[in-house]
């Protein structure tokens, strides 16, 4: 057996390295220790084998004792006599006895299953399931070259008594397609429609092939998978098992039941798997060589060897290695091509003929290279992977490299191709991509020989075909815009005369009439005597950047112009507002009343609003008191405020009551003021009777402070101004007493973003309750204690009755 080399290969992540049993540089302490461990392991395995043999013989004796009702000595004599008569060793005879007993036990279990499911009548010795399974096996072996006969024998002798109604045997092609090789129980027309299943179509057989295991579907309809005759028995059960030998899957055995399928015992599943293996032997009689098979009987890979030698990439041909039970254990490296490059640096003669896991022990890692090769060998589906990380062990040191991997099956052999990525080529490829994405072209100009080298991207920037002569640096001004001549002269003097790196931006006029904005960067190359002999550099297309900068400059200019216009509008609005509503208005004189006003403009000029107040003594002797707020900010709100304030003052001369005044003011707002809405409170105070009539249009009601107890006026109905063309307002009367204080205000005094207007109004009432001092001090305190956070204008009128 070939000793395992010290190197290994596996896809990343790297599993735990295997110990090195035979180092190449002579015995080492670790090598001697590993050799000792291997020798002891061999002795333990031999001892276990001997013990297993003795246990097998004793088990066979026990079976004979039970079957013949004899003594242990008689059973031993019977075993020796059978050995002499058959010419077989006692161990072989014991194995046959145990195997026969095991089959009988499986037969009993299967018979119990059949009776329990009711698919058969009472079991008879001649119709027992095990007998039928063996009959089916004999019929399949007799018709090994006829898959159709195998399917019919399988249904008649083995699966029909289990309640199965149909059987399909599928062969799997390397491209992933399925072909119906044999069937029984299905209508001929249905079988003809399912002769070929293209790759990628999900079926029951495909599911078993993809998962490489036995699949049981109790109800086909519930799974939603199409398959042969799925419309004939939609509620029936299906069982599909991969049919393979020697680690290769040749196809799938699919069994159909007309009714839902109950869970199957493990014994029945093992029998079905054994029948599937027999089906596989009928599909492919070529069996890979296992241990002890002469080299002459190994699969012929001469044609595949010729193919591998014709490839430009390293290739390895692998053939499967099976154990005594026909299970895949490893792959043998039958041929490494002449271009073979080992990731660990070995020659191909070092790995030819070795087992894959001996040459590359770390390939056995989970989801590693061995798993990939095993799946390709089993299913025939090729595998491709780019930039796959591979880890090689050199003196137990993991070294990771990147490779493109290709694995394909050819007959019983597997072709493995890998291409180790060259770092220099990879960097050159990355540079080429970077130049293309950055629209950069490189050049080198030899000033001694006159030779000029351009890359492909530079030809594209100049708009020249690949075979055209390059443009020397000295001739570059002839291709540039005339306005760039001065900058180009400075650039050429710096590089060619002063021998210093330089750059220049220019407009390159191409022969196709297109002008591109180009940045040229160059540096001189000096020889050992500090003489200039070459210039290297690059051209970069900055047209997109240039036009982006132009667009940004235009946008900045537009933004600056817009900001200036907005500032001017805000300034005009603020001037207009201050002209009519000064922040510190003078005291208002009215008979029988003392009136004080506080006006607080918005903190930001951009929030100039439309709040107004007005107190005027009318010709009738009544005093009109009003506050209002136009919705919005800016010049529109300020001009709207002027219109409504003056309109209300003019309408009040008519002698109408506050409700009528607000109704007329609503008509003005709706018809004469463009896109304006507002709120207002209007009151008429009679100094003779101290009665005030008032009405509101969507505004907060006044607050009356009498004897230190504040109370808001009732919230009577009144729609805001400008919402509807015709609105009727309600007015109320209140008699004021001497020393009463009446507060009228706009919402800038109380409004908060985190609370309702009602809660803010209650806070104002509470603040007014603690009022002490004269009227001016009360208003100042209300402004100072205001919890408003909207930064809006605020008007407060205080009226104190004398």
From TrEMBL:
Record's keyword annotation contains Transcription: yes
InterPro entries found in the cross-reference section: ANTAR (IPR005561), Bact_Sigma-Reg (IPR052016), GAF-like_dom_sf (IPR029016), PAS (IPR000014), PAS-assoc_C (IPR000700), PAS-like_dom_sf (IPR035965), PAS_fold_3 (IPR013655), PPM-type-like_dom_sf (IPR036457)
Top-level division of the source organism's lineage: Bacteria
Region (Disordered): 1-29
Leader sequence segment: none
Domain ANTAR: residue ranges: 37-98
Name of the molecule in the record: SpoIIE family protein phosphatase
Compositional bias annotation for Pro residues: 12-26
Domain PAC: 502-554
Key words, A-Z: Hydrolase, Transcription, Transcription regulation
Presence of keyword Metal-binding: no
Stretches of the chain forming a coiled coil according to its record: none
Transmembrane intervals: none
Listed SUPFAM superfamilies: GAF domain-like (SSF55781), PP2C-like (SSF81606), PYP-like sensor domain (PAS domain) (SSF55785)
């Amino acid at each position: 057996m070939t000793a395992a080399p010290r190197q290994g290969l596996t896809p990343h992540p790297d599993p735990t390295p295997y110990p090195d049993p035979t180092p190449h540089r002579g015995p080492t302490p670790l090598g001697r220790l590993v050799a000792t461990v291997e020798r002891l392991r061999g002795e333990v395995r031999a001892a276990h084998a001997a013990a297993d043999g003795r246990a097998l013989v004793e088990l066979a004796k026990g079976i004979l004792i039970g079957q013949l009702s004899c003594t242990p000595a008689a059973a031993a004599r019977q075993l020796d006599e059978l050995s002499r008569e058959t010419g077989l060793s006692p161990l072989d005879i014991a194995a046959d006895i145990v195997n026969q007993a095991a089959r009988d036990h499986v037969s009993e279990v299967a018979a119990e299953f059949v009776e329990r499911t009711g698919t058969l009548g009472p079991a008879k010795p001649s119709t027992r399931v095990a007998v039928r399974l063996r009959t089916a096996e004999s019929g399949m072996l007799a018709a090994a070259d006829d898959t159709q006969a195998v399917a019919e024998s399988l249904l008649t002798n083995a699966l029909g008594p289990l309640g199965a109604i149909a059987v399909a045997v599928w062969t799997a092609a390397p491209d992933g397609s399925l072909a119906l090789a044999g069937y029984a129980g299905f209508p001929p027309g249905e079988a003809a429609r399912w002769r070929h299943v293209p790759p990628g179509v999900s079926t029951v057989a495909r599911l078993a092939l993809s998962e490489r295991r036995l699949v049981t579907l109790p109800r086909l309809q519930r799974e939603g998978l199409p398959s042969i005759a799925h419309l004939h028995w939609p509620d029936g059960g299906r069982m599909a098992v991969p049919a393979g030998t020697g680690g290769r899957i040749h196809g799938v055995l699919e069994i159909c039941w007309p009714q839902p399928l109950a869970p199957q015992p493990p014994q029945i599943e093992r029998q079905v798997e054994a029948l599937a293996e027999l089906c596989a032997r009928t599909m492919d009689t070529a069996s890979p060589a296992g241990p002890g098979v002469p080299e002459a009987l190994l699969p012929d890979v001469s044609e595949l060897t010729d193919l591998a030698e014709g490839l430009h990439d390293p290739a390895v041909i692998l053939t499967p290695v099976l154990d005594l039970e026909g299970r895949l254990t490893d792959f043998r490296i039958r041929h490494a091509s002449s271009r073979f490059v080992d990731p660990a640096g070995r020659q191909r003669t070092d790995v030819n003929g070795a087992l894959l896991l001996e040459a590359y022990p770390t390939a056995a890692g989970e989801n590693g290279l061995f798993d990939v090769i095993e799946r390709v060998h089993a299913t025939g589906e090729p595998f491709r992977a780019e930039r796959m990380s591979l880890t090689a062990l050199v003196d137990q040191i993991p070294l990771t490299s990147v490779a493109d991997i290709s694995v394909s099956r050819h007959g019983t052999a597997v072709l493995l191709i890998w291409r180790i990525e060259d770092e220099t080529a990879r960097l050159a490829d990355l540079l080429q991509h970077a130049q293309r994405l950055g629209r950069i072209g490189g050049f080198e100009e030899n000033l001694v020989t006159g030779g000029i080298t351009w890359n492909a991207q530079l030809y594209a920037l100049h708009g020249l075909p690949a075979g055209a002569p390059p443009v020397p640096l000295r001739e570059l001004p002839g291709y540039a815009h005339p306005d760039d001549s001065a900058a180009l002269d400075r650039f050429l003097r710096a590089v060619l005369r002063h021998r210093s790196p330089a750059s220049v931006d220019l407009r390159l006029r191409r022969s196709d009439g297109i002008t591109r904005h180009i940045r040229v960067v160059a540096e001189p190359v000096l020889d050992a005597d500090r003489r200039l002999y070459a210039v290297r550099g690059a051209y970069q297309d900055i047209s997109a950047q240039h036009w982006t900068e132009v667009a940004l400059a235009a946008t900045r200019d537009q933004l600056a112009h817009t900001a200036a216009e907005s500032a001017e509008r805000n300034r005009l609005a603020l001037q207009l507002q201050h002209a009519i509503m000064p922040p510190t208005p003078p005291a208002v004189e009215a008979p029988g009343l003392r009136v004080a006003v506080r006006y607080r403009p918005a903190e930001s000029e951009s929030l100039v609003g439309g709040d107004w107040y007005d107190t005027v003594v009318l010709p009738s002797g009544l005093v009109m008191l009003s506050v209002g707020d136009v919705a919005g900010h800016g010049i529109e709100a300020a001009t709207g405020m002027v219109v409504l304030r003056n309109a209300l003052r003019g309408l009040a001369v008519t002698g109408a009551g506050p409700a009528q005044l607000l109704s007329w003011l609503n008509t003005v707002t709706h018809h004469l003021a463009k896109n304006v809405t507002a709120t207002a409170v209007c009151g008429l105070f009679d100094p003779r009777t101290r009665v005030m009539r008032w009405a509101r249009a969507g505004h907060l009601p006044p607050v009356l402070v009498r004897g230190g107890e504040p109370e808001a006026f009732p919230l009577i109905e009144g729609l805001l101004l400008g919402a509807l063309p015709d609105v009727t307002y309600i007015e109320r009367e209140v008699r004021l007493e001497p020393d009463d204080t009446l507060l009228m205000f706009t919402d800038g005094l109380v409004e908060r973003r985190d609370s309702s207007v009602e809660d803010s109004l209650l806070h104002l009432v509470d603040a007014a309750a603690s009022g002490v001092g004269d009227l001016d001090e009360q208003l100042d305190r209300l402004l100072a204690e205001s919890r408003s956070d909207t930064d809006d204008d605020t008007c407060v009128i205080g009226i104190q009755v004398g």
